[in-house]
Each structure stands twice: as C-alpha cells, then as structure tokens.
Design a protein that fits this description.
Blueprint: H1 2-13, H2 17-22, E1 35-40, E2 44-49, E3 55-66, E4 69-81, E5 91-102, E6 106-116, E7 122-124, H3 131-134, E8 136-138, E9 140-146, E10 154-163, E11 169-179, E12 188-199, E13 204-216, E14 227-228, E15 233-240, E16 246-253, E17 257-266, E18 271-277, E19 283-290, E20 292-298, E21 303-313, E22 316-326
Length: about 325
C-alpha cells in the first residue's frame, strides 16, 4: 500500500515525461531567463570493483568551485548492498549535497539529475512524504521530482528546486539509492549532474558539475591481463574476495632502483598474499597471509615487473602504494 501511495503522489506532481525533453529547466519556472554564460566543469570520476556481499565504502567525492559563485558539490559513497533487500538487487547508498552562495545577486535554480544507459537500473531519491525526514533544505523549494518510474536508457531521476525570496545562499542534501539490477559481470556507469542557475548582480549564469560513478568487475585476473600501474602512486579501493581471488598488476621499474610496495587493507579486510615477480616471471619478493603488507626489492634489470594479490580468507578493499628511489638512498 505504501509503495502504491508513493507512486500516486509522484505521478500527481510531475509533468508528462515527454515535456522533460522539450523544456529546459529555466523555461518551466515562472520567469523567462536569458542565460549569458553556460559553464560545464571537469568531470569528477570514481570507480568501484563490485563486491560479493554487503560492505561499507565511505568515499567522499567533493568538487569546490570559487568564482563569482561559491559552491560545494558532494556525493558520498556510503554502502554497497546486496540482496536480500527491498529492491532485490545490488545497490549503492549515495548521500548527495550541494551548497552555494553569491556575494552579489541570488541563487535562482538548482537541478540534480541522474543518468545511466543500462535500461533496467533505477535511482530512488525517496518520495515527497519523506523529504522532511531524509532531506536538508535551506532557502530552496522543491518544484518537481521524478524517480523509480524512469526506466530505459538515459534520465533515471531528477529533483528541481527554486530559490526562495532570491537567496544569496542555499543548501540541499538528500539520500539516493543507485539500484544496479545488472549481472555481477556487468559494469554500470551513473552520471550525477549538478546544475545551478544564479544571478551575479548583472546577468544570469548557469554552471554544471558532472560526477561519473562506475561499478563493475575487474579484468586483471592473470599475468596476461595484468593491469598496468605506475610507480610513486597510490591506488585506492581495490577489491579482493572469493569472487575475485587474484589481482595482477604490471609496473615498469628501472635497474638501480629500490621499489617499496605497501598493501593496506580497508576494514573489514581480506587476508591475502602479496607477491612481486621480475621481468622473467620469477617470484623475487613476497609477504604472506595478512591484511597489511610491506615488500621491498632492489631492481637489477629494467622492464615490466608483476605484482600479484591473492585472496586467502574473507573479502574487502585495499589500497596499493608503490614507491621507488635510487639504490643507496634512504626513503
């Protein structure tokens, strides 16, 4: 009954879907606007190896923008959930937040949209009867929203808000569930698009901040399919588990250098082995049966070396760090 009431409420407050394509957001507000400048910022990208079971993630993605508008755009990747659950599907819990302010003028319009090409996926942004419980709104009024009913490729959900009494600062936060509804071997990609229209004292401007989230299996399960990585970098949120027992990486290392490899499990962690192979495929350094590892090795021949992470017990995410320095120098 509650689901049916939710559906009725949503359908009563939204325009027909065909009109969403025909009208730009500012054209459905009360006053016609002339946008003097449209700016799309660089994409914030994030990826996840799909785990086998429920697991906490806790990644915060934030983009800060400072010009005549100050804005913070945030997508917090909270938990990965697997069935049984209310959706009967894997889904990610993603709290969303946007804050913005102007020294001169006002914030006119905020629009947050969710896009994906996988036809069966959905986005649940909770319904109108729950906004007071799950959302945080300052100086904004929700004008329209749609979710769950938007299937097929493209737009999956949106929420539009109008500034109240020409505010110079606004804030909006809410919870979204990205429901994958895809096989474990499929890679889903979701774009979250933040849109702001503001008046800077002389003209209306529009700014768009896209976030691109990817969730799918890795393909680095053998020497032949080893993922190429680089020294003196850290790679985060890598996954190992019973559905993904081996991760292989290759890295080009120079003769006369020392490489230090650090693997740090992110609780709850998997117990695993860490192995380093030289350019001839020989095992030259290793650390066994732990969730945290440190391996050091002096490189005697330049070329591609291989790293293997092998799962023993449990599952979880880990960070992998590679550092190099010339032999004889201390790090």
């Amino acid at each position: 009954m509650k689901k049916a009431m939710k559906g009725c409420l949503i359908l009563m407050i939204v325009l027909p879907i065909g009109l969403l394509v025909a009208l730009r957001p500012w054209e459905i507000l009360k006053e016609p606007l002339t946008i003097s400048e449209n700016k799309t910022l660089d994409v914030v990208s994030w990826s996840l190896e799909r785990p086998l079971a429920d697991i906490g993630i806790g990644d915060s993605l934030t983009r800060i923008y400072r010009e005549d508008l100050s804005a913070n755009f945030t997508a917090f990747i909270d938990d990965y959930n697997t069935p049984p659950n209310e959706y009967g599907s894997d889904y990610l819990d993603i709290p969303i937040k946007i804050t913005a302010s102007v020294d001169k003028g006002f914030i006119h319009f905020v629009n947050i949209t969710f896009w994906e090409d996988y036809e069966d996926s959905q986005v649940d942004i909770f319904s109108a009867e729950s906004w007071s419980q799950y959302a945080h709104i300052e100086n904004l009024s929700i004008t329209r929203y749609v979710h769950l009913f938007l299937k097929g490729r493209g737009l999956k959900a949106f929420v539009e808000l109008a500034g109240v009494n020409h505010p110079n600062n606004v804030s909006f936060g809410f919870f979204a569930h990205w429901i994958l509804r895809s096989p474990k071997n499929y890679t889903n990609q979701l774009e979250i698009r933040f849109e702001l229209i503001y008046f800077n004292g002389t003209a209306y401007k529009r700014i768009v901040q896209p976030f691109l989230l990817k969730a799918g299996p890795d393909d680095n399960n053998s020497f032949e399919k080893a993922e190429e990585i680089a020294a003196n970098r850290t790679y985060s949120m890598l996954y190992i588990g019973s559905n993904d027992v081996d991760d292989y990486y290759k890295v080009y290392l120079n003769e006369g250098y020392v490489v230090g490899i650090q693997l740090k499990g992110i609780p709850p962690s998997a117990l695993c082995d860490l192995e380093l192979y030289d350019i001839k495929g020989r095992l030259v350094a290793h650390s066994n049966y732990d969730c945290n590892h440190n391996v050091t090795y002096s490189i005697n021949s330049s070329g591609y070396h291989y790293i293997r992470v092998h799962q023993r017990i449990n599952f979880g995410f880990y960070n992998l760090t590679l550092e190099t320095h010339p032999q004889g120098e201390t790090k």
